[in-house]
Specification:
Aminopeptidase; single chain; alpha+beta; 13-stranded mixed beta sheet
Length: 367
């Protein structure tokens, strides 16, 4: 059956929220136990790659998180979805996160009422499991009265225009950067091979050091190759000049929507503008594959350079709110953007092998 077994009793009311309807039909499930999961949810217009089994497999296999996805049914079909991963850590506590290492993963709901049904049930399970809080990344429209715990910029790109029209709408610095990279002999290759993932990871380690953050463990990217790239749900775009990697990015896609998930470069070749050519080549590849929307991920409010880069592609800017709800206090609580802090100084100074070692230890707890 399409039902979980964490608890056997019917989920009841939660203080401070409306009583559930007898016909709410909300259940929890583990998508990894259902081979037809992606088919069940595919028809929803707000669905993204992050709601698929591929991403659930990457998170569960890499970090041991438990998938607990809340589903609203209607006539046997999935009509609403709140995906959560249970993160259990002696360092950072127990909580349900929708979803770890995901920029924007708003609930798949048609209205606020269906979200409330899911959220109420998630609270009950969270209390039974001993979670400190629930964190939902995105879905501000379903929490109109709730203060975001932390906010980011989000940028979306419409890929429906033809190539010449699209290029003409880019900001002039972006057009010049693309032409410069081509003139300098930079070439971009699209690949789904593990060897190219390894090449990207080398650039990723350099970029993370520059930004003062440890890199994710390589097993995370190995599982991305196993469950995403090798299944035809993404690719690596790698820019080289005379066979030397200068910049790269990893993209995911599902249906007509794609996500720019990771970008990295070698600062020694920044003048070649490889990042711009990587994005341009990936946009062409995605558009030819029928992708209509490209999500460029989240951007910290204080990162003016990254925001400027993304706006240069004629993107639509929005605000992404993360909502952290304390189960003990029964209210939304503040959080902070953990990409900035004193730890940046430490990780900029550390050799890459030590940062990689610390990343293997810490990321499971950070989620």
């Amino acid at each position: 059956m399409f039902v979980g077994s964490l608890i056997s009793q019917r989920i009841g009311p939660v203080p401070g929220l409306p009583a559930p309807s007898e016909a709410s039909g909300v259940q929890w499930t583990n998508p990894l136990e259902h081979s037809d999961w992606d088919l069940r949810i595919r028809q929803h217009p707000n669905l993204s790659f992050f709601h698929t089994t591929a991403w659930a497999k990457v998170l569960a296999e890499t970090y041991g998180y438990k998938p607990i996805y809340f589903v609203g049914h209607e006539g046997g079909a999935v009509r609403s979805l709140l995906p959560l991963m249970e993160v259990s850590s002696r360092l950072t506590g127990w909580r349900g996160v929708a979803l770890p290492f995901t920029d924007d993963c708003k609930p798949v709901c048609s209205n606020q009422a269906s979200f409330i049904e899911l959220f109420r049930n998630a609270q009950v399970i969270g209390l039974l499991r001993g979670w400190d809080y629930l964190e939902i990344r995105g879905g501000r429209e379903f929490n109109p009265g709730a203060p975001p715990s932390v906010s980011f910029y989000g940028h979306t790109l419409d890929l429906s225009a033809d190539e010449n029209e699209f290029f003409g709408k880019l900001k002039s610095p972006v057009r010049r950067a693309i032409r410069k990279a081509e003139k300098e002999g930079v070439r971009v290759e699209i690949s789904q091979e593990l060897a190219e993932v390894r090449t990207f990871y080398s650039l990723q380690c350099l970029s993370r050091k520059k930004h003062g953050l440890p890199p994710q463990p390589f097993v995370f990217f190995k599982n991305i190759h196993k469950h995403v790239l090798s299944e035809g749900l993404g690719f690596v775009a790698m820019a080289r000049r005379k066979k030397v990697p200068v910049a790269g990015a990893i993209f995911f896609y599902f249906g007509e929507r794609a996500i720019y998930k990771f970008g990295a470069s070698d600062d020694a070749f920044q003048n070649l503008r490889g990042n711009n050519l990587v994005m341009w080549a990936a946009i062409g590849r995605l558009a030819r594959a029928g992708v209509k929307k490209l999500d460029l991920g989240r951007t910290s409010l204080g990162n003016a350079g990254l925001r400027r880069f993304k706006l240069g592609w004629n993107t639509r800017e929005k605000s992404i709110g993360y909502f952290r709800f304390s189960l003990d206090e029964k209210k939304y609580i503040p959080a902070r953007d953990e990409s900035h802090g004193l730890h940046n100084l430490v990780f900029r100074a550390l050799p890459i092998p030590i940062s990689r070692f610390l990343g293997r230890i810490l990321y499971r707890h950070w989620a």
